[in-house]
From TrEMBL:
Organism: Rubellimicrobium thermophilum DSM 16684
Domain HTH lacI-type: 12-66
Domain of life (superkingdom): Bacteria
The UniProt record lists the keyword Transcription: yes
Family annotation (PANTHER family): HTH-TYPE TRANSCRIPTIONAL REGULATOR GALS, LACI-RELATED TRANSCRIPTIONAL REPRESSOR
UniProt keyword terms in alphabetical order: DNA-binding, Transcription, Transcription regulation
Keyword Nucleotidyltransferase assigned: no
UniProt name for this protein: Transcriptional regulator
SUPFAM superfamilies in the cross-refs: lambda repressor-like DNA-binding domains (SSF47413), Periplasmic binding protein-like I (SSF53822)
Length: 109
């Protein structure tokens, strides 16, 4: 099951990925942030472990660091028939990048 430790003891964490890849937690973090100075060999090793374990960063943990990865979209003209399509496109792209979208519609949104 994705996101579940192979030993059944709970959620896969960045520490689980680091242990599986044989690297430090800091190295996994650098790969995930696409930080400067990460070798291609390290990137491949960490990404292979992430894929194998089904690791997904915790949105709650991001929030505790002050990084909620959430943004708002205000739609004023709710009568416009194109806006729902535009909003859904924004939402799909944002969620594919790990962001959450909060939407508000109506006059004076």
């Amino acid at each position: 099951m994705a996101g579940q430790a192979s030993d059944g003891r709970g959620r896969v964490t960045i520490r689980t990925v680091a242990a599986d890849a044989g690297v430090s937690v800091a190295a996994v973090s650098k790969v995930m942030r696409n930080a400067y100075g990460v070798s291609e060999a390290l990137r491949q090793k960490v990404e292979a472990s992430i894929e194998k374990l089904g690791y997904r960063p915790s949105i709650a943990a991001r929030g505790m660091r002050g990084q909620t990865y959430t943004f708002g979209v205000l739609l004023v003209d709710i009568e416009n028939p194109f806006l729902p399509s535009i909003y859904h496109g924004i939402e799909d792209r944002a969620e594919a990048q790990g962001y959450k979208v909060m939407g508000r519609c109506g006059p004076g949104a």
